[in-house]
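User: Working on a comparison across species. This one is Magnesium transporter CorA from Vagococcus teuberi. Can you predict its structure so I can line it up against the others?
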Amino acid sequence: MTMLVEHQINPSFKWIETHHLSTSEKKILRNEFQIPEETLEYVMDIYERSNYITDSVNDIELVVIHVPTKQPKDIRYVSRPVSFLVKDDMLFSFNEAESTISYEGVKESIEQVSSATPMIFLFELIRELIDRNLPILREISKERHQLDDLLTERVKNKDLVRLSYLQQTLTFLLSASENNLEILEQIKRSKLGRSFDEQTMERLEDAIIEANQVAHMTELESDIVDRIARIFDSIMNNNLNDTMKFLTVWSLALAIPTLITGFYGMNIDLPRLSSDYEWIYVVILSVILIIWLIMFINHKRK
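Assistant: Here's the predicted structure for Magnesium transporter CorA from Vagococcus teuberi:
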């Protein structure tokens, strides 16, 4: 069963959608559409960075952007590539991630164009995919506010894990958004971009504006989360220092009774207490010395 889905966008061109290419689908793309094997291997690489490639020999324009994908078992997001290939009057999309590419999301905008081309449709799809970062950033902002409220409370390990997930997610999203913006600007400066008509250039600039906004918002959110992480680190270090000071004081304090009673167990000429309650005097002396030690250390800390 083939997963090559053809959408006839208008009489001028069609969009061929793929998802997790199989061997049989690759064969169809090679034989019927003359897409090179090397290109197919390239678009199937889930670790490929955002990129723009022109293949003048095979008359191919290839654009790779990154979109956010949620990890199935936790709250983290990573970025995965979605590739678009323009050849003749056809647009191919290669989706090896779990993202969905929907025509409905750009249908209204495309219908406003009198003669939509594969490039116009491509930039509308890219803009729609880039927009998917916005609800994720709102979700991250909400999570960040919750962690921010915990600064006045006792921080737990699970809160630190949540914070690390936010940092990891923002690292992926920031890198992806900056690379997406760079690729779109590269297309605008390219020979292909300089040949665009007014409508196509307008759609490209819309995508660039959206990508720039997402990159700026992601960078801002990342900076805020990094500041919160540094505050968390400072609080944890202070708590650790307080704990170590507490343990040091009490380890010294608890050594005093052992020290005093130890002298009486040695062959040292010390005044002997003849009372049956001599152990009480030793305890009282130990308590006095412990209190003096604690007061002395507290005075030094001030």
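For your comparison, note: Residues 177 and 213 are 9 Å apart (CA to CA).

User: Helpful, thanks.
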